[in-house]
Design a protein that fits this description.
With 1095 residues, this protein is mainly beta. The chain has eleven helices and 56 strands.
Length: 1095
Amino acid sequence: MQKTQKKQRFFCKGRNGLYVLLTVLCINNGFAQQRTSLDLDYDKVNIIDVLKAIEQKTSYRFFYQREQLNTTKKVSIHARNNSIQEVLSILFPDETIQYEIKSDGLIVLTPKSKLTKGKENSQQRKISGIVSDESGSPLVGVSVKNTSNNSHASTNKAGYYEINVSDNSTSLLFSYVGMSSQTVATTGKTSLNITLDKSAVGLSEVVVSVGYGSVNKKDLTGSISSLKDKDFNKGLVTNPVELMQGRAPGINIITNGGEPGAGAMVRVRGSNSVRSGQDPLYVVDGVPLDITDVQPSGPTISGAGSNAAKNPLNFLNPDDIASMDILKDASATAIYGSRGANGVIIITTKKGKSGKGVLNISSNTSISTLPKQLDVMNAETFKSYRTSKGISGGDYGANTNWQDQIYRTALSQNHTLSYGGGNDNGTYRGSLSFMDQEGIIKRTGLEKLTARFNISQNLIHNRLKIEANITAARTKDQRVPIGETGGFEGDVILSALKNNPTLPIYNPEGGYYQHSKDVRNPLAMINLTNDNNQNDRILGNISASLDIIQGLKYKINLASDHSTASRKVMQHHSLIYLTNKGTVDISNVEQNSSLIENFLTYDFNLKNRHRFNLLAGHSYQQFKAQSHKLSEEGFTIDDFDYVNDLSLGNSKQATVSSSILKNALQSFFGRVNYNLSDKYLLTATMRADGSTKFGSNNKYGYFPSASAAWRMQDEQFIQDLNLFSNLKLRAGWGITGNQEIPNKISQLLLGSSGGAILDGSSKNVIQGVTLTRTPNPDIKWEKTNQVNIGVDFGFLGGRLNGTVDLFDKTTKDVLLEVFSISPAPTTRVWTNVEDMRIKNKGVEVSLNGVLVEKKDFSWDLGFNFTTIKNRVSGLPMSQITTGSPSGPGITGYSSQIITNGHAIGTFWGRKFLGFDEHGDSMFEKDENGIERQQALGSALPRYSYGINTSLVYRSFDLNIAFNGVHGNKVYNNVANIINQNTLIAKEWNASNAAIATDENPNGTLTYSSRFIEDGSYLRLSNATLGYNLKLRNVDWINSIRFNVSANNLFTITKYTGYDPEVNADHSSAGVPSIGIDWTTYPKARTLLFGVNVEF
């Protein structure tokens, strides 16, 4: 069996290598022909000799009949680095011979009258004109195509074009991205001016990615939100996920703070599972990414570095993204089966366009600041309060604003260079970008260098299409001790808030003043810790599509995703809280993913009324992640780069660990799209997934879906109303899965025990071995059943349009670790809880309207709204706890629970009623006088919404975007410390709000509803003012655009912390927490200045 598997793997690898080799050769050949340049130097030679010379110098071949050429004709040609088209124009200037260059390099020479059957000999003439938009502004880069012979021209920066036509030419086709195409007759004309109308773009022209293909938006039966690059959020964007925040209904995005490159929690239509694995699947140019992103861990010393999650999409340059399609309901996501339960986000990058090559340079500089400081006591207030309470001491003579010491005004820059072009046979685009983003906390920042290239080539008379994409990125980020691992003492932000304001920054000798191990100088923590991370990633894929017969197409897609990450953290020996002098932690992670997909599509119609699109395919993807970590202590030298010589550590007891994870996913999938008379649409999908993560008895899961739509606006009784420009009803049902679970939890796991025996013969100690995980071969997939009903509508000729969707999602067979049934080798076992359900019911609304549309002024307005109700039922235990608070005396609590009848993310605890006459906290009690434990609200918002508007006046444009949530709660763990005056007696600082209460300063910290705050907010997330400069007398510049952008201008909220958008990771046993603020890196307010030049 093992030999057979090895042979199969060898054959698969060999076959994949052959596919790659053949595809690369095809691409190489096609583009070599396009870029061929010729040097010819002949005087009065026979034309046949010149044609033979060209064949010898290039891969082109000529086809002609000798009797149709004047073989005695003598020609002279002196070409230097000329293209084949230029050479042929010199050889045949009289136009009695016409040529056609085929995609395979064959050049067909024929008399003009016989090039196209039925064509009569005609006189060539030139036609010219100007192409402009509705406001009269010229359009640069408009494609002008002669429909008779497929010759092309394009407009210059003044909108001017020239093209040769024959007397019997029938029409020219004018096309431009984002505007409707026009076909205009040319008979009898020598001048032709064209106005393209952008408002004429209809649903039939909008293409949406649906997984393994694309469809026109008018033919969609599922629920998909599509965002093009013009719809994205503007300003300083590092995380590509931020491009869509507040722009689409049904998707809730909570960033993990304002640290450069920070990750985000993304939820599509609610939370579907108890444990991790609730993020959507990301598909980049047809390649599903491994969303179980493994990152290098931080230091072993608590609080020595930030462990906040970084975003797995950081390797992408946001400027390279052309569109993001969000697949939300099961009828849309079921094509991805076991990875579709949490939604699918399909990212398509920018491609080259047919026409003259376009060079684009984009550059911007930004300034970022802290929007607000938290209101803690200054030195004078601190001393007077302690005196008023009879507390002596605690005055060290300084007046230090510690927040001023750790925050700064940050400068950032971002530069992108791209070049793209092509022709009817192929396109290309390459880009290079560099970003240097400073964080608003000192010594934090992100550097990113990305390079991207894609090509597309048509071969064999356009029957074969080869496409290739590659992205390479290097990301470097610098961190300081921030976040959930820092504990009460080890966090820079918390130290700046709670440190005694009379403590000095420096000691008399000029070094950092360090009061004690528990009272840490935040500036010393920043400057005496080096925490650097480097991530290198290469994502590439190559595909070939072959038209076998009319309508039948075969496609193969090969992809590889490789990344390496290295994190090195060094702490200087002068930090007095280190127990064994200076420390070094080195962590390395390497991840690999490979993919091979084969699928067939077949398009056909019957009687011009029944249109079918069939899809059948196979996919195999494997993943591997391995990590290594080394920790050493005891460094005493002043040279900070301990990592360069680990032997300098005094302990000589390096801690070493390593791990490796492997899994694979094999899939079979199919889809049927049926269209009856362009009115009635049906879609059915089936996918079977087999994963190594699951038990031997349930390796495969099956995920079907079905949906239908009725295009009612095409019915006569709707048209008679003269009301709707679009009206479509949609309904769908489907089952999707979730395979993002701990690796191989169905299998037996052994570990070392606490006991040992002595070998009597060798006298060696033999370590004991014990079972640490009970196997369960019956573990199967979590499955989410979803029903969706929606309507798409449009009024006023498309000026007002929108969608409304109602959905009901239920997850069953929830995977949990429960108590084992005795007898069992371990106390807990993983299993599917059959009776447990997690339900998400909600409504989505999206409205977009053109409020004003005049020659010099237009105004668009968009609005989206989502409400979701989440409930848990059938939990086999009373509750699952998570979200442990941080702080002295409260670390034993759990702030959140999962329990029956409540939403995921429910805060749980005592209800605070105020203070008694002694200044002690009072809590609500039951009828027996026992303090009641109860629900204190949910971190999940009841409503989320986004508002965006765009105004254009001549060459100026203004884009404004708001986003917000309502009805959610936030546990302010920071306020739980600084808003209580119980620590002032211990020489800690507190907020001015704390000393305004009647609280007993000699009390202890407590967790309760007192610090569960309203997390609702409305944020002006971005405002961008742009100006398009018109250069009418400079031919070599197509356009120049200047813009000023502001991010995070203001936030309307009742929340008292830095920012209500928080998501500190206080998970417990793999159960994530939501909505906890524990020294979250504040979001910056940013002002950006940018310029974009197109050549």
